[in-house]
Design brief:
This protein is α/β, with parallel strands linked by helices. It contains eight helices and five strands.
């Protein structure tokens, strides 16, 4: 039986990485594969370098996409085919939401253009948990954790949040939108309930 792919998405400061850490330490998820994008491989390292430098926005997108392709080939697909469930902290949704903002004005419909270059080879998640949060709160959280990237600005994050919500509206059967303005324990419970619902009847 093929495993399920669950992706966790949200703007910077939404709390999804905190929840990922909690899930990873939960004994109920001991057989899950936990991963993230950008990956820790050499292409992922190049992505992180691009994020923190003055890299052309299109070149940055293509690095993200190359990392995604390697991630699917080397980890995601083999894990799913072996029957293991996968949880990824960020996935293709991040590219659609974030790079559609960075490439705004460069292409007439940047999100559609980005989605089109993923067609035919990416793997769509079985469920995407979207951590929805007020961008002002998110920016405050980002500020508390040290130096900010170019993505961690309120005006930018407002546009990214809008893109995420548009993706959720377009894919209601796959997206679960969770209010992450609340205490982390409440958010974690909702995530656990959503994953449990997805996996009911899997085995």
């Amino acid at each position: 039986m093929k495993g399920k792919l669950i992706t966790l998405e949200g703007i910077d400061g939404s709390g999804k990485s905190t929840i990922t850490g909690r899930l990873n330490s939960n004994p109920e998820f001991s057989n899950f594969v936990f991963t993230r994008e950008p990956t820790t491989g050499w292409i992922g390292e190049a992505v992180n370098h691009a994020i923190h430098s003055d890299t052309d926005d299109l070149a940055e997108l293509l690095l993200f996409t190359a990392d995604h392709a390697e991630h699917i080939s080397k980890l995601i697909l083999p894990s799913l085919e072996s029957g293991r469930n996968v949880i990824s902290d960020r996935y293709s949704g991040s590219r659609y939401a974030y790079q559609a903002v960075t490439l705004k004005g460069r292409f007439p419909e940047p999100m559609k253009w980005i989605q089109d270059i993923h067609k035919g080879w990416t793997i769509d998640p079985d469920m995407t948990v979207l951590f929805d949060i007020d961008p002002q709160v998110a920016v405050e959280r980002c500020g508390n954790r040290g130096s900010q990237t170019k993505f961690e600005k309120i005006g930018f994050l407002e546009q990214v949040r809008s893109n995420y919500l548009n993706l959720a509206d377009a894919n209601p059967e796959r997206f679960v939108v969770i209010d992450s303005n609340r205490p982390v324990n409440n958010v974690e419970k909702d995530v656990l309930d959503s994953i449990s619902f997805l996996l009911e009847g899997q085995g």
